[in-house]
Amino acid sequence: MPFRFRGMSLTPDQIQRIARLARIAVSPAEADAVRQRLNRVLELIDELQAADTTALEPMAHALEAELGAQQRLRQDQVTETDRRAEYQAVAPAVEQGLYLVPKVLE
Asked: Which of 6, 24, 41, 100 has its CB 3.0 to 4.6 Å from that of 93, i.e. a possible disulfide?
C-alpha cells in the first residue's frame, strides 16, 4: 500500500527526529521553516499519488516522452584502434600485459 500524506502535518518532534536520523543540525529557530518545507513536499507527493496513471504505459527512459521510439542512438561500432601496446610501452612497470602499481596498503 503506497504512503498517503492525507493532510497530516509533521510535528516539531518529528522534525527533530528526522534531523537526528539525517545527522543534520536543525536549530529550534529553523525547525518551523524546515517543517513547512517538508510538509509541502509531502503534499506534493500526495498530489502525485492521486493522479490516475492506470491508462499510461510505463517508460524505460524519460526521453521516450519526447522522442518516442525515435531515440538517437549511435551505432555500436569500433571507432578507435587498439593502442594497448603503445600505452604499455611508456608505462613505468608492466608484467604479462598488466600494469604494475605500487602497493598502497600494507
From this structure: 100
